[in-house]
Amino acid sequence: MKKFVFTMVIGATALTVGPAMSADQADQIMRGQYQAVLGDCAGCHNQPGGKPLAGGLPLETPFGTLVAPNITPDRTTGIGNWTETDFHNAMKTGIGHNGVRLYPAMPYPAYTRMNDRDISDLWAYLTTVEPVSNKVEANRLPFPLNIRLAMLGWNALNFTEEAFKPDPAKSAEWNRGAYIVQGPGHCGTCHTPKSFLGADKDSGFLQGASLQGWFAPDITGNAQSGLGKWSEGDLVRYLKTGVNAHSIASGPMAEAVENSTSKMTDPDLKAVAVYLKSLSPDPGNTQPAKPDEARMATGEAIYRDNCSACHGGDGDGAGELFPALAGNSIVAQGNTETLARVVLAGSQAVHTTHAPTTPAMPSLAWRLKDQEIADVLTYVRGSWGNNAPAVSSGDVAAVRKQLLP
């Protein structure tokens, strides 16, 4: 049978793979490459400066460090000795080759909802990538957490193997969005609060959670802290470009936009937006915060001197270059970790094909003390209809300590 090599283009990425044995196999590999995009495999398994999917990127968890493994088809250091059944079991049950139990940093609690065809397609694609010899010590957790057998108990308490179940009362578009968010996109892995065991709190689905020094925000329909003020178009643009009039992607979300959502198809982005916009918001505390007048005055003076040139005297920003702070859901989050981090460390927008400009915010850690940052954030969170609680200097100090080398 004649072999051939083919090139596929997903988003702005051209990838040559082969040889393939048939057009059907070529189609399957192309579908599998797109599954890798949906699942953001590169986000964990690509180390800066390393070969694609060769692993080595440290993942800081509340329990210690895990390192993303090599998932190229290298037979010694990757998954070249795995079978498709091994891979299917890892995705659906968290049990990999030779019965090794995985930690949920590999989000099998979400991937379990993927259908068999999508998992088979992903496997077909992974068998075609360049094999890379890169030995990775994935498990660097302290004793006794480094004993993988403990995951037997964790799974019994926190994990149920289940396929995605479409809602017949909803549209095909809504169900596609739900499938992506709950399954391959594993949005809840970052955006859903966790129990003390590190499991998702289903009652707080997508209502925000701390992640590696950032706060992954509420992405439900909450009008104050969630996406209630965003249109479907706003959300599609943010996922496609990393920026809209409300926000600029930073931290782990910038990586997710660069490697995953910016390369998704427009229909899939629209489906995700339809689903997320349908989620019932948590009403939360609807009473406006009562800011301290003295702190508000101090914070306003700091804002005028340090922030207003870009974000405007009234917090209205400058389009997609500098986001508006007035009515900003990121500003109004219950957790202020991301706000303090951005002020202390600065931030730069992600580069995407459709938004190549990468505006940046400079670090103000050298210029402002913890109390000053707390005061200016208190002012921003208490102005222009944000109605969010005050920020303490202790909260800022904790973030500053995390950023120290």
Mean pLDDT: 89
How helical, in percent, are the residues? 25-40%
Low-pLDDT sequence parts? 1-18
State the helix count: 16
Largest pleated sheet: 3 strands, antiparallel
Shape: globular
**Domain tally:** 3
Characterise the protein shown here.
This protein folds into three domains: 4-158; 172-278, Cytochrome Bc1 Complex, Chain D, domain 2 (Orthogonal Bundle); 293-403, Orthogonal Bundle (Cytochrome Bc1 Complex, Chain D, domain 2). A hairpin with a 2-residue loop joins strand 6 (209-211) and strand 7. It has 16 helices and nine strands. It is mainly α and 405 residues long. It starts with a strand and ends with a helix. The longest helix is centred in the N-terminal third of the chain and has 16 residues, at 23-38. The strands form four sheets. A three-stranded antiparallel sheet has the order 3-4-5, with no helix packed on it. A two-stranded antiparallel sheet has the order 1-2.
Question: In short, what is this structure?
Answer:
37% of the residues lie in helices and 9% in strands.
